Amino acid sequence: MARSDLSILLSTLLLFLPLLTVAEAELGKSEKFPVVVSTWPFLEAVRAAWREVDNGSSAVEAVVEGCSACEELRCDGTVGPGGSPDENGETMIDALVMDGVTMEVGAVAAMRYVKDGIRAAWLVMKHSQHTLLAGEGASAFAISMGLPGPMNLSSPESLKKWSDWKENQCQPNFRKNVVPANNCGPYKPNNGGMDVSGGIRTESCEMGTIEYKLPLVGPHNHDTISMAVIDKMGHIAVGTSTNGATFKIPGRVGDGPIVGSSAYADDEVGGCGATGDGDIMMRFLPCYQVVESMRQGMKLEQAAKDAISRIARKFPDFVGAVVAVDKNGSHAGACHGWTFQYSVQDPEMDDVQVFTVLP
Ligand SMILES: *[C@@H]1O[C@H](CO)[C@@H](O)[C@H](O)[C@H]1NC(C)=O
Ligand SMILES: *[C@@H]1O[C@H](CO)[C@@H](O)[C@H](O)[C@H]1NC(C)=O
Ligand SMILES: *[C@@H]1O[C@H](CO)[C@@H](O)[C@H](O)[C@H]1NC(C)=O
């Protein structure tokens, strides 16, 4: 907020000071501003966003600081540089920021050579009329607007993960109905034989049929930070950052930079963040669904559960979660296939609190 806006606000508040005591008491019951909500126990990210927003910054600025902290800390190895190698061993970044006041969105997808995903997304929002930049073009734009790069996003850990995977005949991977089925490519389409669907691989061998789940998205492959912030003015912003799915096919873009899927915000209603199997979740725009359900009058928790159950009806084995916040600062989560945790800080809390949601 600009300093002049602040002084106008302050003098307006002073005028109404006698009235404010009553109003404040009422607000205290139903509205909790500012508030920061994030997927997973990414405590430092929430604290970073909280420091910003508690100090008067806008919701967008706080979201950027919060997600950026996660990128620097390489939360879970799935946010920021140095994690989630693709089939070529490379790390790429997906990120998004959305302003619930203006409905402006900036996003980058499959961005190489630049580690600052959320800042790159913010630059797209601030300095272009576009919404989403992808690949080499996203990197070039981010660097031209002042972000450090080009740089190598691999780390010793990501390179080790990748070489172990290569030694394991490139298993598990995201290919389906291809030959060779259990060796590294080049792959060709294979109609018949092996079938892979919904994360369950069925393979026939002399012993009969074996079935096992691909551990591609799981408790230690959380996939995304998705964060929502309501600032002191009651404005909502959301943001996401991820380095995507481990051993993805190069070029894959997940739900992270897809607005309405990984995140959505509208000041009039609330905000939402999602995490999980992005390849499936992005087909349902779960965060758009949550916000629109709330707009139609559905209660917060029910809206979250409804968005998740729409996906589960079609993909019973999918793993994912959403966390939603309404414009009053109330929050709720829903999940499927795993136990989900999200983190919150609001004025009633001394520090971040973690909430657990059972499937
Ligand atoms: C809070 O805002 C004030 C005034 O803009 C600034 O001087 C101070 O450094 C900020 N504090 C933090 C922790 O960002
Ligand atoms: C990054 O560095 C690693 C290790 O030196 C190297 O194997 C890899 O090819 C580099 N990646 C790119 C995209 O230059
Ligand atoms: C938000 O608070 C207002 C004022 O107390 C209340 O009328 C409204 O029902 C609340 N909205 C939600 C979605 O809880």
Please give a handful of descriptors for the protein shown.
binds 2-acetamido-2-deoxy-beta-D-glucopyranose, 359 residues, disordered N terminus, alpha+beta, 10 helices, 8-stranded mixed sheet, 2 domains, Glutamine Phosphoribosylpyrophosphate, subunit 1, domain 1, 17 strands, hydrolase, globular, 4-stranded antiparallel sheet
Give structural notes:
Belongs to the Ntn-hydrolase family. Its EC number is 3.4.19.5. This is beta-aspartyl-peptidase. Keywords: Autocatalytic cleavage, Hydrolase, Protease, Signal. It is an enzyme of class 3 (hydrolase). With 359 residues, this protein is an alpha+beta fold. It has 2 domains: 261 residues, Glutamine Phosphoribosylpyrophosphate, subunit 1, domain 1 (4-Layer Sandwich); 40 residues. The protein has 10 helices and 17 strands. The strands form 4 sheets. It has an 8-stranded mixed β-sheet. A hairpin with a 2-residue loop joins strand 7 and strand 8. The protein is globular, with a radius of gyration of 21 Å. The relative contact order is 0.16. The N terminus is likely disordered. It binds 2-acetamido-2-deoxy-beta-D-glucopyranose (3 copies). The site of one 2-acetamido-2-deoxy-beta-D-glucopyranose has 4 residues, from loops.
Low-pLDDT stretches: 1-29, 195-215
Characterize the quaternary organization of these chains. single chain
CATH topology of the largest domain: Glutamine Phosphoribosylpyrophosphate, subunit 1, domain 1
CA distance, first residue to last residue: 40 Å
CATH superfamily of the largest domain: (Glycosyl)asparaginase
Give the helix proportion (percent range).
Answer: 25-40%
Bound heterogens, unique:
2-acetamido-2-deoxy-beta-D-glucopyranose
How many individual domains?
Answer: 2
Outline type: globular
CATH class call of the largest domain:
Alpha Beta
Q: What's the β-strand tally?
A: 17
Spatial sequence of strands, sheet with the most strands: 4-3-2-11-10-1-16-17
Rg calculated over all Cα atoms: 21 Å
CATH architectural type of the largest domain:
4-Layer Sandwich
Task: Quote the average pLDDT.
Answer: 86
Secondary-structure-based class equals alpha+beta
Give the biggest sheet: 8 strands, mixed
